[in-house]
Fold these 3 entries.
Entry 1:
Amino acid sequence: MGRPIVFLTDFGEGSIFVGEMKGVILKINPNAKILELTNSIRPQNVFQAAFLLKYSYKYFPKNTIFLCIVDPEVGSERKPIVVKSSNYYFIGPDNGLLYPAAFSDGIKFVVLIENKKYFLEKVSYTFHGRDIFAPVAAYISKGVPLKNFGPTVSSIRDLVFEEPTFDENGCLVCRVMYIDSFGNVVTNLEEPKFYSLLFKYNLTKTSNLYIFVGQKLYEVKMVKYYCEVGEGSPLALFNSFGLLELSINKGNASEYFSLKEGDVVKIRFFK
Amino acid sequence: MGRPIVFLTDFGEGSIFVGEMKGVILKINPNAKILELTNSIRPQNVFQAAFLLKYSYKYFPKNTIFLCIVDPEVGSERKPIVVKSSNYYFIGPDNGLLYPAAFSDGIKFVVLIENKKYFLEKVSYTFHGRDIFAPVAAYISKGVPLKNFGPTVSSIRDLVFEEPTFDENGCLVCRVMYIDSFGNVVTNLEEPKFYSLLFKYNLTKTSNLYIFVGQKLYEVKMVKYYCEVGEGSPLALFNSFGLLELSINKGNASEYFSLKEGDVVKIRFFK
Amino acid sequence: MGRPIVFLTDFGEGSIFVGEMKGVILKINPNAKILELTNSIRPQNVFQAAFLLKYSYKYFPKNTIFLCIVDPEVGSERKPIVVKSSNYYFIGPDNGLLYPAAFSDGIKFVVLIENKKYFLEKVSYTFHGRDIFAPVAAYISKGVPLKNFGPTVSSIRDLVFEEPTFDENGCLVCRVMYIDSFGNVVTNLEEPKFYSLLFKYNLTKTSNLYIFVGQKLYEVKMVKYYCEVGEGSPLALFNSFGLLELSINKGNASEYFSLKEGDVVKIRFFK
């Protein structure tokens, strides 16, 4: 069976571009195991893709090959690369997308994809996913050594996610990283940091949070799971990524709070 | 290859939660065959999931494992279960979702999922699909006996679909169970019951139906397939679930009749 | 493993009809390799399906079985067929859908699907995808010879895509064939024809294009890849299908030009 290949793209669910990439892979490796992490990255949103990859990669088997195509600069000088980390392979354009996940797993080395022998015969200017990245992923899944694809490089473009910081009023300034399909609002506040802050402010975990969205203040109950509050009520919890999430029990928090990805949420620990 | 695992969730197509569950399964069983029945159940709509599962399960091979995650009460006291029916395995929360399908296939026994040995090491409060249900499905696909997961239980939460009934005016009161992606309106009237009623009223199958949507009366042609009527014309037929469906040839019946899931449609057999 | 089966339908992503078809196939061939080209064809749009199939099929392995269900006349007299081309199998209704791809690959022979032995026991009037086409695809993937399914036929319904032509003012009249998920506008102008026209008019490839959408004239830069122009600027290029495409760098060309599938775009080669 070999190493599974996992897609992460902005082509949209049901895109025939995804279908074509699968065809290309199967032509090279008829036994390839192809999965989709998601093809619903918002068009050209490298940030969103990098975020979701960072918080998902570790659930896949060792040696999984992540084929990541969010590539607004396709055809230009941006480089196609393979990042070998401690446990995985990450393939995609060198635009920051692969960095947070690979860095978190431990980057071993990076190969620049240059050897045309492993490309489709005719390479388009607009779809390297099909013509370069998919065939390279297929060859890696068959065990072709990474050195065959090109030289190693000593640096790649990084992308570092902002950490929450305190403002002049003692509020913790968090960023909305992701809105999921239920409308849950996922922030950049990780659980260990939160506990340290609770400790510092001498609060118990069951305390409510006071959050500012713009000038508006909300008191939000801090819970473990969604249905601890009544239907339609707001809540905050640490979600399955280990990040602080604002939610509405059986509702849509993104709409409730009028929050979208990239927005700021401020948390105050005292009334 | 073993037993296929079929997903039925409300995570949305392209949800990375679906992707993570696949990763978890492959880590445990690299040869797992994973399929998707649908991930497009409307958020938290246990009823819709139960309906679609009931009318679809039998098309899958014997011993298929249905992994069903529509779980608004995740984290609370609701129980994770495996239902073994005559031919299948149904895994999910004990909230009624699994009941209609398993009952229809014949429930053999039910196991409460308790043995943490088969969970992910760290179980979140919000995503048991990934942390409990997916690993259990993977172990079942590898042949781990059900008794290993926990004790059997003697009852589960049921969910029984309403049957059509007659009102005081002699109209058959049907419920809209499902609107499909073409806008077809699927009711709860099964074909054998309909034939019995035709017989009772001494009607032939080619008769038109008189249907009330609210106060409005429509005369609808009863046909076998969609293009028996002109484009844009309404029709009724027994669909591939064996249920009465209202449709518009090359059109959208849900919009035409202003009907949505849960609404009532009344059928009169005489002018 | 055998021959892969590739779905092309208008059922919508996440449709349970797609799920049921997979179940039916696996019951017959537990080792079937099922892929999706797309299930997002616009409802009943045979033209769009035929177009995407024509420009995608060749990326799949030899002997791939394309299971194509866009079937507004299901249940009527339209015929279920298998087209054997030089390298592939195309299964679907005889409504033109299969023609452009099969013709381009070279049609060898066509079999009418008649032998009920290969159907599901109970065939509905509305879902031949599940009850006839999916089982036939599964049997072909197992190696059942085509002659077993029915007699050969000497003609099928064709569907020929319009070629660009010149109007009385010397403008090249192109048709919008497809809008992709990024909003890129794909026309019916193939690259070789374009070059011949450039040669005829003695123009260089870097020339700008003058395009009319309705009465409105745009000057559009002709480039190789999207980010050769500034963000939000219009461009034209030959895309991964080898067709002229109008695009906006990091934007949506369909919205920018108010163009939809089927519309006309006129190209003038001189200012």
Note: The mean pLDDT of chain B is 93.
Entry 2:
Amino acid sequence: MSILTGFTTSDVRFPTSLLLDGSDAMNPDPDYSAAYVTLSTDADDGLEGHGLVFTIGRGNEVQVAALNAFGGHLLGRDAESLLADLGGFSRELLSDSQLRWLGPEKGPIHMAIGAITNALWDLRAKREGQPLWKLLAELSSEEIVDLVDFRYLSDALDPSDALRLLKAQESSRAERVSELLATGYPAYTTGPGWLGYDDEKMARLCAEARDRGYRQVKLKVGANLDDDIRRMGIARDVLGPDFLIAIDANQRWDVVEAIEWVKELARFRPAWIEEPTSPDDILAHRAIRAGVAPVPVATGEHGMNRVLFKQLLQAEAIDVLQLDATRTSGVNENIAILLLAAKFQKRVCPHAGGVGLCEMVQHLSMFDFVAVSGSREGRFIEHVDHLHEHFVTPVQVQQGAYAAPAAPGAGAEMLPDSIRKHTFPTGEVWAARA
Amino acid sequence: MSILTGFTTSDVRFPTSLLLDGSDAMNPDPDYSAAYVTLSTDADDGLEGHGLVFTIGRGNEVQVAALNAFGGHLLGRDAESLLADLGGFSRELLSDSQLRWLGPEKGPIHMAIGAITNALWDLRAKREGQPLWKLLAELSSEEIVDLVDFRYLSDALDPSDALRLLKAQESSRAERVSELLATGYPAYTTGPGWLGYDDEKMARLCAEARDRGYRQVKLKVGANLDDDIRRMGIARDVLGPDFLIAIDANQRWDVVEAIEWVKELARFRPAWIEEPTSPDDILAHRAIRAGVAPVPVATGEHGMNRVLFKQLLQAEAIDVLQLDATRTSGVNENIAILLLAAKFQKRVCPHAGGVGLCEMVQHLSMFDFVAVSGSREGRFIEHVDHLHEHFVTPVQVQQGAYAAPAAPGAGAEMLPDSIRKHTFPTGEVWAARA
């Protein structure tokens, strides 16, 4: 038996706005940041659990405050019983009625639950000596169902539906583990497409992406239609007629504007239009999807919880579901979302980039392939090639595919030196600027 | 010209959990709290602007951190130009892309924008010597339209729609101001119905409510069906066949359970069923409304933003829209929501109670009656009779109606002594407990 004795948080920020990495139509100057949490126990193994919430700068201290609000749920608790029932513990955190009021089930409190839940999964995976994707993929179907909070889902998915979906994939899991170890999971890259990059840089990075084995890139759109037409034209010329080019408007439009704008870009055959409007607007996504068909509609990186995703699926409002590792309440809620997507037979192409999102979300896609959907068809994990050097187990992307991670854990652990240097506002990177 | 020179925040909490005031099926033990903000200028008038976000205890410090994140937008700014363009300034706050990421447009960041915007309205109303409702009701229709952020609304409401609605009421505004001053705005009371009260207390408080001139009470339901049937029966017996009795499940149910439960209570002819399920679930509210007809469906106290309300209205998912003074981004967004309700011809019966919600939201309903919907028909403002003694201008509710406030301001200003004593954790109320 061991006791959770350590709960520490850090405000970590990278000055990415200087290079316009990550710039888009809504977010001109992000400083990619992490509200970071470390859990430790009094066990002799010295293992820790690490989790984080990705933010883009100001407000990261609010997210840290939200993490700290949960310290009382963790310190002094028996680690073995928490780790053995992460479904139950996730529900305990979600049921803190005073903290829940600040959402409910959305925003910093919800994301804090996600980081803490993910940190516990990280600790459990390290104790079991497994990468998270494999740990999850070796649970029984019944154990997976027990991880999910079905509240508010039963009009679309109940435990028996979930069990049926999982059972259908059970006997073939081992085959897919082998496939995954052999060929990895497809990636697409957003690296070429940031709005702050000029045409020459964008074209060069598109060519590099193709040469490095990617089959899809993504360009940011939505600030200026003429620019978008020119940039899409250049990208299509560089990449040829069959390469997949997704576009991403980062919530810039209302319904009519979205339809008109995307129709102007449809001649370049976009692989999908991402975040055409408010991430909360199920009915607008449905209307836009009808208006821009056959261009597929994608959203989800700001999808606040399973209730939103359930409705996007029920309303047939999207073609591609883009879950995020740190926007919802963690691994458990993301399993609910993967099950919903499988039930409605929609592709999941996770959002990544940011700080550590690639490292974390790959585990969910790989688990999905092995145990939930059973498919990689038309699916990609986003890949952005920055800030990986700050992680203990950075992603390995080669020839346009994520290699299945072998290291124990859930991927969020940062190097102590990176945390120290980038701690806001006292770390040396920020102190030097002040 | 004057400069905004003061921006201070306070973590104010009342130990309401001791008496089970405010207890419901989701929130068994709230400590009603306020994340409070005070704005001041270097003007000789000494006037301040006050705003707050209502929370229920733990996490109030997270909300205070969210308020503090906006200090940089305010300090040193020219007060006159901000107050003269609160539509523009509200949009400035909503457009801080780094802070927006933590929502977007929901949760603590969004509510912080609400409290700050409301504090600016409070300051402006005090400078103009007007209660907020009257200040708003004396703006031109064009000025009112300019206060609204129409982003994401244009598929349901655009500026020309809004202008048409407002113009239709313009010539008769003065009549309704007279009516309001003469007879006030109808109130209903939730005082009798908290789940933690025993039958005798509930019955006694129902009788008192009727005797004090209320025409509607509200009972909490959703924890135990047998209890609900017994309590509804007692309330109906005490109040007679024609008195309005609303019921409130505080998000406890999924779709099928909601329909079954409400059907069991339908024999008591509830005035509405409030928050039957997740406040985010537009499609579930639509299904529940169809399933429980003719019982009206109400929701909104946790409605995160105008995009959610727009969809509830577009989907014909509700009969009664319950906006809240501190859940969204303040007066400006609530004007958008009132305009949406008027466009879709739905009743608005605001959520109140909590800390200062009655004091604030009455201004919105009165403005709505004078300038937007033009109607009080079937409309009530919730009233809960506690914590008013901590406010500088507490509501006056007599014979079941809110008297139109005459004091300048927007209603949120608390007594300095109340703030001091209830500051968490150092104020004397909390220090004594520690």
Note: The first strand of chain B starts at residue 4 and ends at 13.
Entry 3:
Amino acid sequence: MRNAFKESEKAVIYRTIHERRDVRSQFLPDPIPNEVLTRLLAAAHAAPSVGFMQPWDFIIIDDLTIRQRIKANFDSENSKAACNYSDNQKNLYQQLKLEGILESPINICITCDRARGGKHVLGRNSVIDMDLFSTCLAVQNFWLAARAEGVGVGWVSILDHDLLSQQLNLPENVYPLAYLCVGYVSEFLTEPELATKGWRQRLPLEQLIHYNQW
Amino acid sequence: MRNAFKESEKAVIYRTIHERRDVRSQFLPDPIPNEVLTRLLAAAHAAPSVGFMQPWDFIIIDDLTIRQRIKANFDSENSKAACNYSDNQKNLYQQLKLEGILESPINICITCDRARGGKHVLGRNSVIDMDLFSTCLAVQNFWLAARAEGVGVGWVSILDHDLLSQQLNLPENVYPLAYLCVGYVSEFLTEPELATKGWRQRLPLEQLIHYNQW
């Protein structure tokens, strides 16, 4: 079919998509060269966005003091989360490593400026959260490009975002959508860790497909 | 660096990311073979999700009557949106083609089941919308894999989502996150249409990068 990539090129895309992992434990301290980081950010910036709003900004955090504060934010939220579980599930939860804030050489917060582009952003009239959704697409571009570069990425979602906004000095209209731990890794695991550790298994794709209606 | 792809393979990833477009106008009627569609859906299903929740489902819509109803939903919302603009901007807005619901051979709604995985999904305690954000990552996997297959994708965000939920018979806990027009295309435009038509230009990446704090 015209416009399609060659079979060998398609295979690279699928390999990237299927070998991408959420990394928490395998970070190496090696610095990421500037030209690599710039390629990753340019990949994120090439994401589609509602009304070409491009609502994202990228905060690159290597300062250890700031990261320690954000780690404390995580610890506090994670303790609260652990209380949702009991018995064996609580034990398993507490054994899972869920972030690499201090072990990764840099953290990157991808934010969403909810006021960018003015009051009436094209395509955002019916669903106001399209700006947040657009920013997620940038996150996934970053994540996939990073896999190809051998760079691991882990999204830390167990954070009080109001506190995180203060910790990063964000303006009122800017939301800290994705807090990412970023660095080269010793290996990419072959399967998602939550599956191999018995927390939850992959759903069969065929159960998730519907035709014309639910 | 270990785990990195070869330079030629990295180039394929970046090419996919930079040549992906939001398609509204270039759809061809050619059907998408089942094996291609299955690869695209498997790519979406390989996205990361909070707590391995995998909250997505895929509704593949080819029924013309259903698509006509959804086109009417778009027309109604789009008329309302046009009222946000005046003079030259309104003229330009009304000339933009913003969906390909009927011209594309299939539409796919990627939904988010907000109740999947039970009450306490790992990693979703602090930010309840992490399930929606995860579903967006699946959308971008789909979109990029489609580009490599020569398949165009356009996200229609100008829809009343309550009405869309009715039109697709969604259960109460399922949100119609992304309504996509999907099909082979005559060409992928070299630049985003909103830029070439003068609606809005790409922001310089360097303006979007911050160090350690905003």
Note: The longest strand of chain A covers residues 174-184.
